Amino acid sequence: MPASVPAAETVAISTARRGAYLAVLVVLPVAALAAGVAAVWGRGIGPRDAVIALVMYVISVYGISVGYHRLFTHRSFKCGRPLRIALALAGGLAAEGPVTLWAAEHRRHHKYADRPGDPHSPWAHGESGWGLVRGLLHAQVGWFYTARRRSDRRHWVPDLLADPDVRRLDAAYPGVVVLSFALPAAAGGLWSWSWAGMWTALFWGGLVRYALVHHATWSVNSLAHAFGGRDFRTRDRSTNLPLVAYLTLGEGWHNWHHADPTSARHGVLKGHVDPSARLIRLFEQAGWAYDVRWPDPDRIAARTLPAGPAEWSGGAAHGGPSGTTGRSGPPSGVDGEV
Ligand SMILES: [Zn+2]
Ligand SMILES: [Zn+2]
């Protein structure tokens, strides 16, 4: 734990809990992906399982991007109670933790991004090639196990803890994780009317899908802080990375997200397709979402870096090319306004 983080911001976690994180967040997803690759290699995936897995993938990724991230962590929009609960449940299907824990870690990430105190910077092990490899592994999944302390929810998400619905959702989280596997299994069993169909749907729509969702999400923490283009002025090393953006339904336009964390749209440049922003727009048009913080063109212009090579692929000094460190405080909306 870096000394620069005040003790009140984090809490110690037990060895048993770290072991559970190791099993559920590190080992099992890798095993599921390996089994998925072996299964594709051997027998392929049938259309029924592909459809079930894709639907589960889209629901859980939207739950993370629109629900956990843009709504609960950053308050990019407001919505009625039914949609709020539905988005939290969808995020729970990703099996990335209860919403308060997810939001607490992520708010700390914004405050300390790529500096000591960031829970998952790929630059945590220095600038060398080997240091970046270690850092990428740390940012992808390593920190789940190696961190001895977690962000203290009382410090980071008092607003969420004060919401009775959120507390109920936290309590219901283990049940939602069970649903995350039971739903695709039931869909496969009923669709095929067979036990075999239930098991293969559990494998593809449950296990392999959860592993893919995890690694797509975590690649925002690792790859989108190490490789790709920087179009906007931030004091961290966030980037815009198309492949990650496609896999995460818009979350890979991470450089603008750090430049303006409360923006409901992350992809603000031409070609930066952001399906999560489109979904929020649909909610707004339906009257279900309101007070949406759409990006302000003046703000985008003010934060756009001067044209020129802004590709970062590691090795550059912290802060990058001159002009990228012009801001002295945390990224806007991080302290108190996430
Ligand atoms: Zn980030
Ligand atoms: Zn964020």
From TrEMBL:
Residues 305-338 are annotated as: Disordered. The keyword Transmembrane helix applies. InterPro entries: Acyl-CoA_DS (IPR015876), FA_desaturase_dom (IPR005804). Residues 324-338 have a biased composition (Low complexity). One of its GO terms (molecular function) is stearoyl-CoA 9-desaturase activity. Keywords: Fatty acid metabolism, Iron, Lipid metabolism, Membrane, Oxidoreductase, Transmembrane, Transmembrane helix. It is found in: Membrane. Its main location: membrane. Its EC number is 1.14.19.1. It is a multi-pass membrane protein. Pfam families: FA_desaturase. Residues 52-265 form the Fatty acid desaturase domain. It comes from the Bacteria. Signal peptide: none annotated. Coiled coil: none annotated. The chain crosses the membrane at residues 20-41, 50-71, 83-104, 171-187. Belongs to the fatty acid desaturase type 2 family. This is Stearoyl-CoA desaturase (Delta-9 desaturase). It comes from Actinomadura algeriensis. The lineage of its organism: Bacteria, Bacillati, Actinomycetota, Actinomycetes, Streptosporangiales.
